[in-house]
Amino acid sequence: MKIELASSYGFCFGVKRAIKIAEEHPGSKTYGPLIHNKDEINRLKEGFDIGLAESLDDVKDKESVVIRTHGIPKKELASLKEQETEIIDATCPYVTTPQQDVAKMSKEGYSIVIFGDKNHPEIKGVVSYAENEKDAFIVLDAEELEGLPLRSKVAVVAQTTRKPEDFIKITSALILKHKEVRVFNTICNATFENQDAAADLAKKADVMIVIGGKHSSNTKQLHSICKNYCDDSYLIENESELQSEWFAGKKLCGISAGASTPDWIVQNVIDCIQEIK
Questions:
Q1: Is 122 a catalytic residue?
Q2: Backbone phi, then psi, for 206, in 5-degree steps?
């Protein structure tokens, strides 16, 4: 059986930047998990004494606090600034952009539509930048637009890791019904590249392994895309989850990885598959 890596996979710019920032501040705490990868977070804890603050109550005065890649709600950031803490902002610049877009357009009187998962930390942060959160609506598909009390002027942004084709459906539905629609394409280019590469590989592979955190939005998207082209597509966090029967009779194993998956985990998975085959 041949093993082939997708032409684009793994750590994106924002994650690489956040990891570097954390490593440069040993002994600090991250506000929320820095990235969606438990193994990499454990590496930072063991090698750099990076702690974890799950809430404001976990932050003490004069501590150094690293803001997670996904960003945090505006009020929580303001509360941290009121404390005697050193704030180190590792929010991905591609996440900061929709925050700024929402703040600007809501001030100008636009209703805000956010395409994304309301429970995802990135979206919790983005929606908090609206002047009035009652004028900001989070949707996952065009059907959820029905009945929303939107104004004639609408601005729409997207979670950085969503599928472009779904974003197009939502923006098209808005354009047909509203006088003015401002569209901000805030989907990350790295997401495009990883998704396209995973799709290309899944079309020819007879088994696909997607590596990444089970709570990672972009990793789940990769797995969904691979499933469209290769029925035997599996999402794992590390090599311990591999099952030998997945590879029985297979000729080509494709591998992709989410934006929060480090190369050392990818290599561990490859080594384990080679032993299995």
A1: yes
A2: -105, 0
Domain topology for 2-9+189-276? Cobalt-precorrin-4 Transmethylase; domain 1 (3.40.1010)
Profile the chain (277 residues) by mean pLDDT over runs of 10 residues.
Answer: 95 93 97 92 96 93 93 95 92 96 97 96 97 94 96 96 92 96 93 92 98 90 95 97 96 95 95 90
The domain limits of the chain are 2-9+189-276, 13-92, 94-183
Which tens digit of pLDDT belongs to each residue from 130-179? 999 889 999 999 999 999 999 999 999 999 988 889 999 999 999 999 99
Query: Any idea which architecture 94-183 has in CATH?
Result: 3-Layer(aba) Sandwich (3.40)
pLDDT at position 218 is 87
Cα 71 to Cα 162: distance, rounded to the nearest angstrom = 17
pLDDT of residue 194: 92
* CATH number belonging to domain 13-92: 3.40.50.11270
pTM (2 d.p.): 0.85
Instruction: Give the DSSP per-residue string, 103-154.
Output: HHHHHTT-EEEEES-TTSHHHHHHHTTSSSGGGEEEESSGGGGTT----SEE
Rounded CA gap, 109 and 50, in Å? Answer: 42
List C-alpha distances in Å: 6 to 11, 74, 205: 13, 37, 11
Q: Do domains 2-9+189-276 and 94-183 have the same CATH topology?
A: yes
Max CA separation in the chain (angstroms): 60
- Is 156 strand, coil or helix? strand
Please pick, among 40, 76, 122, 239, the residue that the annotation labels catalytic: 122
